[in-house]
What does this fold into?
Amino acid sequence: MVTNKWVMFGCASVALLSASAMAQSIPAPADEGTRADGPITSANEIVVIAGIGYRDRTDTPEPVLKYGTDYFQRFEPLTAGDALKRVPSVTFLSDVIESDAPRLRGLPPGYTQILINGERVPGSAADRSFFLDRIPAELIDSVEIIRSSSARRTGDAVAGSLNINLRDGYELDGGYVRAGGLLFNDDELEPSLGLVWGGKAGPGRLLLGANLQGRHNPKRKKSLRYGDSPENNPDYATDDFDNREDQTDTRDGKDYSFNGTYEIDGETTDFKLNGFYVRTDRKETERSFEYDDATAVIGPVPVGNLLTDNSNIADIDQENYTIDGKLSHEWSAGKSSVRVGYARFTEDRIETENEIDFEDLEFSGQRTRTDIRDTEFSVKLEHEVPLGEQAKFVFGGYYQDKRRRTGMFESEQESDASATWDQFKQNPDNLAAAFDDFEPVDGGDNRIREKRRDVFALVEGDTGRLKWEAGLRYETTKVRFTDYTVAAALADQRADYEKLLPSASFKLSLSESDRIIGSVARTLRRPDFNYISPALLEEEVGDSDLLGNPQLRPESAWGFDLGYEHRMGTGGIFGANIFYRKVKDLIELTNTGVEGSEGEGTFVYQPRNVGDGKVWGVEFDLSTDLGFVGLPNTGVFGNLSWLDSEVRDFIGKRRFNDQSKYVYNFGFIQDFPDFGAAFGATYRKQGSAFGRVIAEEVTTTYGAELEIFVEKRFGKTFTIRAVGSNLLNGRKREAFNKFDNIADQIDRDFDEYELESEKAGPVFQIMARYAF
It folds into this structure.
């Protein structure tokens, strides 16, 4: 059988041969230092940034904020996630000094569409989100916040889309190397190496990039647990204390990445082939001690009785790669293009947890193996026809075949523990014997196949002052879910649905410096993979059970954005925007009325499409130099987003889960052209977030973040930067309200109240760049 992978490679090969053949008969671009959409950047300009970087002003009708590397590079972000901490409305609920799953406008990651070079990529999470901390910042040409949707793209973008544009052959001329190291507060030193080269190759241009990034995140966590909360008892800390847990948590690993492009721009025919690969080797090591005394002290003479000693180690191997080819041709009937892509994500994870319980002197061990294989094959056809001199008609189709295999298997063991255990010299892992054979967990061995067939059409216009776009997209989806852990009669489930997604946007120039930007669109969010499993998971919702629902429909949303932009000086921009989303068919857990596995008082819950929600907010952003006050070499930047929403659940009104109330950052860059030096700082703060599900509520707060850089340039080819990040010793605090069931949650009868905090120290890095 011919797999999609080889179909894609075959199509790309045919396209490459066709493009090469056509290149023999078409003249090269008149000026090899330019391309259709702008000049080629030399490597010197990337290594030695002379001046202040601004947010780019885009001319497409859509509301897009574009940030080139000159905007954030001087702070040497390690990943795409780090870079996004400096743009409006992006929040994270990650651990301290990590930035994995972005939450555009504070909404859960599944509401944000992640694109690389304008195309979707698969990820590991059940909500289809992609972890941006796997993409090295060194490979990025620009990041884009696409605030609203267009008929050109799939509609999975209720909050908006984040597009990561990687460098290509027409974005760089020459090469450069980047080398340095990062020093963490536990004296761990990690390398950071990169190499990028772009130049002419045959009839087109080639770009190659490689990166090695050492990753390390040492944190300390502390949890205090009580039988009641300050909500019921002001003296809970003394009256209701249960236990204290102290934990060290270290994330350590390496990311290896490669990317390449080959592109031919001709007079009538263009061809582009992209490839991107990232491999992550990661180890997460946790060691936890639980005491029965709130003032417990870890040391040779401990204070407080040790209740448990726990070791948890996860070994993670991940691979992401995408390859796609695009061929476009202008002819008498207009311009036609075809894009063929293949993307694959794999994860192999082994997590081992060993624990000693000193009350019963028992040892228990559990090992979990998780294997994920997610592939997407897609084809996009598009044709545009001029409608006079000021408009054009665009139509096309999109096909995607997505296949996802998830395997989650467990093995356990138990034995007696030693009464003379010394937690300072011994580790629970020492007591582990050979584990039994792995057995699949309920709902943990499944296969999903999702086929999409979309058609779209839109009209674009440009009258000089007004740029506009209006279109329709019709999406059809067929899903087949096969679960190998349930009875044969339930194992194979199917669901079909379709959506019509209108969209429109405009940019109206009021003057050379001022313009208004507006958009309206219907978007959707597809159900999480773990919610469409037909398996019954016991005690998954407090003491109650969870039953998946293969017939879930996607959530849909109508929304608008309305913004204003003002150009400041030669490159600065001030922007303001308001947005609103009305979400229908929200997916929430509902009580089926069936008694749960734990008997009376417990139930079986199932996700269903119930209720509505709404999201709104105001966003501001600024980037400019201070030339208007006589300081042309001083640049300031900042953004502020105020975010709000409303959902009605089983208790009452709340925000969308874990949406921060606000996020802002601001900073400055001071350039000294005569000395070839610069320095700057940025400060970021994210507001608190609240989430409520059945049997649990959590409030999360973050501390502020501060980064400072100092730069020295040597001629036009060499730069050294010193960067200090997390200089305020970032903290994350969480307060958990835990209940046995909904009745207790409504009555505020607590099963447990927990206060958890984690802290990480500063990170210092020295980076040198050399252009050649």
User: Anything to note?
Assistant: Residues 4-25 form the longest helix (22 residues). The CA atoms of residues 259 and 276 lie 4 Å apart. The mean pLDDT is 90.
